Amino acid sequence: MDGAIGMIHRGHKAAAEGVERLTRDWLPGLAARLVFASVLLVYFWQSGLTKLGEGALGFLMPSDGAYAQILPGVMDAAGYDVTQIPFFPYGLIVLLGTWAEFVLPLLVVLGLFTRVASVGMLGFLAVMTVVDITGHHVEAETIGAFFDANPGSVIADQRLMWAFPLLILALMGPGRISLDAWLGARMRKRATYY
User: Does the keyword Transmembrane apply (predicted)?
Assistant: First the structure.
């Protein structure tokens, strides 16, 4: 019996190692970026669009709604009058937060500066979660809990799942099929000429 189990174990190990060898340089990063793109790219871009001000320069002057979404307590204290909120630091926070919703997801999907963009998105998710819980005062059911029988809570469960592909990208990088890999190859090629 020990011989058969040992043979099955060795066969399994050899097959798994072969698959890992063939895929580790490209599949985890590509899959994480595709999952992120299919689930979150449009979500963050639509959210970012709600924060843009009017006109061609709306990306420089976030809407009142941007302040209400990002800094609900500050907006409430200012009587919902954005002109009463100082640019530094609050206006700058809203401006950078708005831009982050466009730039960071795009960088993640393209695989450009992927590790930094992924860490930035993880930070963004953390801030978004804190604002939702403390600023927008979402209900306990919306927050949810880990290791409960309900896998559908918007904050605990959903955001943990959102964070996982970003964690993979932050730790493992975007893989061979990415702009990071392409730029790295070009830089190495260029370095050999000098």
Answer: yes
